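Researcher: Re-running this chain for the archive, since the previous output was lost when a drive failed. Same request as before.
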Amino acid sequence: MNGNQRRSLILETLENGRVPVSGTAFASRFHVSRQIIVSDIALLRASGHDILSTNRGYMMNSTPEQTMEIKVLHSDSETEDELNTVVDLGGTVRDVFVNHKIYGILRADLNIRSRKDITDFLTDIKNGKSAPLKNITSGYHYHTITAASSEILNLIYRELERKGYIIRQK
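Model: Regenerated structure tokens:
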């Protein structure tokens, strides 16, 4: 099987699936390395396919959504409340990014849609799998939030602002 055939099957799997598929699962299925799959996903994205990377694998972004970027500041102990606020009001925390004075923008995909996703994410942090990206910029960080409508995004923004998490950008 050549690369074009493999990418076609990856795309078909993602378009027809409802759950994320890990790079490892694709690599095993096609008898290639996970790095080959990462390259295939990058090529598919470059050709215009909206493929999301989640902590559980790859999936298609098939929902037309509204998007906003917010700048926030909170303690580690408030992370769960911040994320719960977004998902409870109907949003998805697409990513987290920081603007580091030396390294520039550092971004990590999250794709947190549910309280279970939050629990999994916080468990990984607690178990030392990684540290919150916000910690390298004294807590200041950004999120890309998506939702089905601008009304939902406005509701999320107002609630995060009410809780004191929003930092107004100049």
